[in-house]
Every structure is written in C-alpha cells, then in structure tokens.
Sequence to fold (829 residues):
Amino acid sequence: MGTAINALFYLRIVSLKNLAVSRFLRLKQPKYLIGAVVGAAYIYFFVLRRMRPSPAGPAGLAATFPIERLPQVAALAALLLMVFVALYWLWPRARAALAFSEAEIAFLFPAPVGRRTLIHYRWINTQLRILFTSLILALVSSRWGFLLGDAWIRILGWWLLLSTLDLHAVGSSFVITRLLDRGVNSLRRRMLTLASAAVVVGTAGLWTWASLRAPVPADFADPGALMDYVASLLSTGPLSWLLLPAHWVIRPLLAADPRSLLIALGPALLVYAAHYVWVIRAEVSFEEASIAKAEKRAARRNALRSGTLRFGDTERKAQRAPFKLGRAARPELAFLWKNLLSSAAYLRPRTALIAAAIIVIGSSWAASAGLEVSRTVVALSAMASAAYTLVFGPMLARQDLRRDLPNADILKTYPLRGWQIVLGEWLTPVVIVTVLLWLMVLTAALNVQADGVERLSPAVRIAAAIGVALLAPLVCGLMVLVMNAAVVLFPAWVQASVGRPGGIDVLGQRIFFVAGLFFVMTVALVPAAIGAAVTFLIVQWIAGIPVAAVCAVAMVIAILGVEIGAGIWWLGKRFESFDLSAELRP
Amino acid sequence: MIEVAGLSKLYGDFAAVSDLSFTVRAGEVLGLVGPNGAGKTTTLRSVAGIIPPSAGRVQIAGRELATDPIGAKRALAFFPDEPRLFDYLTVSQHLAFVARIYDVANHEAIAQPLLEEFEIADKADQLPGALSRGMKQKLAIACGLLHSPQVMFFDEPLTGLDPLGIRRMKASIVRRARAGAAIVLSSHLLHLLEEVCSHVLILKRGTKIADGTIAEVSAQFSNGEAGVSLEEIFIRATGGSEH
Fold:
C-alpha cells in the first residue's frame, strides 16, 4: 500500500504545483491580469478588511455574547449536528459512490491498487478541500461571539468537524449500500430511521416528563430563557448521552484557548478514529457508482463550460414543441422555437396561461374572502420578485448567443443576415423573463391594497401596471442585448470566465463584467429617462398628469425601441465579421 | 493468460453480460465485436477488474481477479476508448505517476522509447490541455504500456488517431502479441480486427454468439461460400441490427 500512497501523494503535490504555475503564467494575458487585480481588490476590501478585528476590541456578537451561555450554545450545536447526521441516513437513495475524477478512475481502478488504498486516496483528496473550506469558515466565523479561540483554533475545530462529518457520510453510504444489497429499499430504510428517531425522541420525552419540569410561560419570555430551558433538556438524562459524540466533535471549535483545545481534542479524535475504522473496514463495492458519479460530474463540467448546464436533473428528455413552427414563420421565430425547446419543459405558453388563470382566480377569491393582510404580503412579494427578476433574470436566462457561441460557425452558414440571427437568439431570454415579469405585475396589480390612498385609484393602478408591463420587455431586452454584445465583442473574456477552473483572476473577471454591464445599462437608460422627464414636464403643463404619464411611457418605449433596434442591427454586422476560432486562439 | 468462465454482469434485472466464457492465450489477439449495447465495454471493464462481475471467474496471468486483485492487475493494462488524463500532470509526469503506481524501476529508460514510439517525446513537458485528442490517446496508451503488461484490454484503440498513428498502433499491438502478450481488443472497425486479431468473439445482448479463430467463425456463418468478409459475417451473426 505504501507504494500506491506514495504515488497518490506524488499526483496531488505535482498537480497542485502545476496548477499554481499555470495560474501564475496565465497572468501574462491581460484578461487574467486585470481580473486578478480586480479580484484581489474585491477580496481585500470586501472580505479581508472586514475580518480584521477592530482596534477598539471585538466587534459584533463577540462584544455582546455572554460567555456563560457557551454550554447552551454547545448543547444546541450538538443537537443541530445530530439532526444533520440523521439526514445522511434519511436522504440518500443511491449506492455508495466515492468522488473520483474520470482520470483517477481510468488510472487507478485497473491498477494494482487495493480498495483501502482507494479510500485513503479519496481521504487525502478530501482533506485538501476540507482544509480550504475550514480556512474560509474560520474567516467567516471570525466575528461569531461564541467562537472564542484564535484563528488557528477555529481552523482546527472546523477541520475536525467537517472531516468527521465527511467520514460519517461515507460510512453511512456504505451501510445504505449494504442494506440495498440485502433488499432493504430506500423507503424501508427511511421508515426504520424515522422509527429509531421516534423511539429516541419518545424515550427522551418520557424521561423529561418524569424527571424535569414541564415548560412554563416564563421559559418563553425571551430567547435567553428559552435557550436555558432547551439546554437543560439537552444536558441531562438520555439526550445528553445521545448527544455526547456530537458534543465531543464540536468542543474543539468552541475551545477558547490552547489548553481547553488540548482537553477537547482527545474525545474528538476518538470519534474521528472510530469513524475511520468504520469506513476502512467496510467491505462494500463502490466502483460502479463511483464511475457513474464521475461521468455525471464530467458531463456537468462540460455542460458548464459550454454554457448548457441546467439546474436539477441533467438528463435530457425530448420535449413537446413550445409552439407550432409553420413553414411561413419568420426565421427569427425558429430560433425562439429552438431555444425554448432547450429550456425547461415548464417554460411554455400554456404554463404561462395556466399561471395567469390561477393568479386571477386566486386573487379574486382572496379579495372576496377578505384576506387583506395576505393580499398585501402577496403584492409586496410579487413587486420584490419582479424587481429581482428584472435585474437578475436576463443574467440567468442564457438561451441566446451566450449559449450558442460555440455554434457560431454553424449559425453563420445559415442564409440569414447577421441582425436576423442576433434578433432570433435575443428573443428567447426576453420572452421568458418578460412573461415572468408580467405574471408578477399581474399578481401585484390584483392584490395591492391602496384603497386608503387617494392618488392610487384603481384606474391609476391599472395604468401603472400596463406601463410597467410595456416597459419590462424593453429594459430586459436592453440588458440581454448588452450581454450578447459582450459575448460577440469580447468572446475570449466571456469564455474564459464561464466554466473554466476558478481563481482570483476569474472572480475578478466576473466582477468586472457585472460592473461593466450596469455601467452600460445606466448609459443606455439615460436618454430614455431624460426623454421621459422632459415629455412629462411639458405635457402635464398642457394636458394634465394622466396624459403626461402616457406620453412619458410612450417616449421611453420609443427611445428604448430605437436603441434596441439599432443595437441588434449593429451587433448583427459585428456577428457577420466575427471569427470565433481567431478570437479564442490562446 | 486470460481465462473467463461464466461471467455475468447484472444491473438490477438487466443482464448486460450473460454467462460469458472465453480464453486468450499468450500471443493471441481476441477481437471483441458486437452491435452497440452488446456488452463489450462492460465485459472489458469486468475482466479488467474495474467493476465487480455479478458472477463468474476471471483469471489473469494465473491469478484470480476476485481473490488476488492486486496480483492480477499488476499483469494487465486497460485502455479506455476516451483518453482520460490528469489536467495538471505533464506528459512525463503522467508516466512518472504510473511508474510509481506499478512500482516500475528506472522508468525513464522505458518511458523515453515509448514516447518516441508514439511521437510525443517533444511534448514531455506539456499539460494535457496543450495536446490534441490523438496525442492524448497516445499518452494514455504509453502510460498503459509502461509496466510491460502481459495482458492488455483495448476499447476502441484507434479512435482519434491519425493514419500514421493508426498504422503504428496496429503494429504495436501485433508486436506485443508476438512478444507473448494476451490481448483483447474491442472495436467496430472490422478491417482492424481482420488485420490484427487471431481470434474473434461476437457478442449480442450480452451473450456470446460465436467464438474462435477468424477462419472458424467465418466457416460457421459463411454457409459454404468462399471469401466472405468479416463485415458480412458480423452482419449475418448479429442479424444486422442492434436488437
């Protein structure tokens, strides 16, 4: 086993060294250098500087957290950990699969490497990731008042906690696999787990009933009193024994100084060692499930790189056409048809109509039932969601040139003008986001409560909703156009920041692009805003506010429409002279 | 060298491979053919010890794969259809890594001729990202040959190679068989099998349809006709469809 482990260490160390060198060398390219500068500045100003302790002493929770509450925090954390561990037994359905890459499987599975060595190798790999996560968590938790130890104590504490959880996940997956092999399906296993949990909770409840006092109103008077009562439940009797291993695992993280850490380390390492022996001695076949997992991960990574990754199930299924594509249909609509087909199956006109019907019927029922508070909450939520969708929707809906760029050579063989291709590609995200926005505007308009506000008469509300509904596709369309322009104008930059191995430089590139997007959007919206303001001022002086509002909206629509039309035409010209192979040449 | 008896591989109720038995002796090259989904890759993965078979015995160079997997694997090499390499190991570091895994002493002396044979010696310090698909395939093959395996399993070995690479690969397989290796080669390229293989095994739906020398299998399906090509034999044996 020693030879194999040596080889695996060699693989890890050399890979890390080469990774660092290649990341450093790519800084020769301006796109990575600028990205690295922006990324480093972001991390310094928004992460590291905020993590530094204030010269005036501990800040935030640390300054206010009462130390005497630490045992209660420990008890609650142990309970939380136990609930988390229970999920490992309840949740999984699949057989045990260890995380290997396709290359690791190709080289290691046919090699003279034993099962235990493979588990050790996976353990070595995981430790590197856990150590990195522990560093991040130690930074994030630096201001949590109940973590009293220095940074290195927090890192060690997080590492022990995460490593033990990781081993528990592997061990539980081995047991689940063995149960599956013996014919115990997921449903039966879940029932067994829930029944065991019920027995434990029931026993603890009976004991509490017999030995402890029942909670009184004073126990709910404030969070501190409630915490005291719950902690007293968790710290005595059967629950305290049950939570003891979780307590041991958590205590190093809560250690205040090296001495208390040393005391806490012994039991925590004992739990860790027990988990290690459990995992290493389990005789369970994990090869096939690991191969399937590696293939799935590789497919996801490729999909991410090509911009075709979809959340949820990655398995593609043939879908019903979103609408009938007639021979006489404009070619731009064929792009909409194609891109909708590659979107989630629920993004269809019929779904939108059903959703609209549900909103109308539901809102009418809520109004007739007098659910005023609920309607206000719904209206406010719809407005907030609409604002969120308007800003982030065009970034997330990428069924346009951002996804189709690798197919640029094929698109250019079509007998179409550049602007037709750009328009066709541009349509899908605009349609999807617009329909979502319309549904939210409809929800808000039907449920907003403004009866007491004289100016917000039903007529004004309807007019405002129509105005927003008319403007939404234009603002969304402008954002989509700007992002498509970025893809065509700076393909190497955009491709470099999508699905490639991350790093501070790639982080910086993404920040740079988002900042650029908002800057360009601001510049593009200024003429429309000025036009609307001037129109409103002039017309309201002549014909009153309602007519002025209509004219202002019309002015915004006209200006944004012209901008989008000109943008699509110009981008089409750029696309016609676009050479992807030359742009992406390193 | 390779003894397979009663090999079966089940995925739930689906039998990917059923009761498969065959033998490949030293110096023989067995061509594994069959329509898509016939169970060729599952067979190769099972006999190479990558996935555990549901039933049956596999012996590699006299060692039982089930009871002595390390000993059996030390004698074999598996070449997948798609070269899967480590992103951050250079060409020479891949070979160094494999040498450590298989405990190959003085591996540089073996690696250099292999790199030259496959024409990637000048790429020794390159990461896989800088290599073409064919070069990656050559590197994967060089890695597999580094420990001088007695038993080799090739899954579509010519995919991605240029004409010269194909010629060298074929010559390399034949040379290694002549040197005493037992080789199993899965491919849809029937002309490759005709040129390289001494024996052929036809699989359909995980079951063996025919097994023997090319002459024996030809005789079985030629209906007395002379000069029937392996392609025609394959179509007759499998019914010309995937199902």
Summary: The mean pLDDT of chain B is 88. Chain B touches chain A at residues 48-52, 69-71, 73-74, 76-78, 80, 83-90, 93, 96-98, 100-103, 127, 140, 143 (CB under 8 Å). Residues 163-178 of chain B form the longest helix (16 residues).
